Amino acid sequence: MPRAFSPRAQRVPLPAGHRFPMDKYDRVAQRLEGVGWNVLDAPDVADEALALTHDRDYLGAVAGCALDARAERRLGFPQSPALVRRSRASVGGTVAAARAALDDGLGVQLAGGTHHAFRDRGEGFCVYNDLVVAARALLAEGAMRRVLVIDLDVHQGNGTAALCADDPRIATYSVHGDRNYPFVKERSDLDVPLPDGTGDGDYLAALDASLPAFARAARPDLVLYQGGVDVLAGDRFGRLALSLEGVVERDRRVATWCRDAGVPLVTTLGGGYHADVDATVAAHVAGLVVVAETLGV
Ligand SMILES: [Zn+2]
Predict the structure, then answer these.
(1) pLDDT tens-digit profile of 156-174?
(2) Boundaries of every domain in the chain
(3) CATH architecture label of 3-295
(4) Distance 118 CA to ligand 1 centre (A)
(5) Of 69, 121, 176, 204, most Cβ neighbours within 10 A?
(6) pTM, entire model
(7) Residues flanking ion ligand 1, Cβ below 5 Å
């Protein structure tokens, strides 16, 4: 069974009716425990690791709950010490999952994928960019030389793209809805924008046509996967139309590439905002189970 990390011990009370689905994280963890997975508490992240990716003034403002009103609105969460603790554990869990992946071939973070966080600002529910923080922390330790971020959330990984634009050690690949937020896209090393309403067949064909060649050329020592399930038909913030089976096939392809190339894989949850939270949870769980089966972990 894979090692999975969850920041669920750090609870964040949100205002009633807030559109962020905080519940899904606990439910995904419980479902995986139900099939025998070992879910560990995500550790706090080291300040030095955050400082490799984020601006010092921004880190200070977040830590002190001193973001201005505009920055807080862009983030989408009310500031609180609980949110800071949760966000730190969410990054720490991705760092821990990356270490687990280097040991075991697979490390699972049951949160994270906060790809809209930039060097000096957060947006779209993303305080820190866990993907880039984890990549840079392990690169700095000399644990690896090259990383590939595969971002299949329905929203472009704009923060990740901007953060890594001048970092040749980290290759960025994003498949996303062309007309979705963020409306001004950043430039990933490879972007695959898809039209509204794209379903399983066209989605998987686009993935097959671009991912294997790009990933091979990147020659990564580690893959960080943002497996957002907001690609599902019926997601409130997505515009694509994948079925549950399509999401599982997508995740199987990512894991199969890693298995065949012998590259360790870190999975992060990313988005998922279906009107029916059960549909979001089921897609996350089914995808993770097939990833673990594919990798034999
Ligand atoms: Zn998303």
Answers:
(1) 999 999 999 999 999 999 9
(2) 3-295
(3) 3-Layer(aba) Sandwich (3.40)
(4) 15
(5) 176
(6) 0.98
(7) 153, 155, 228, 230, 271
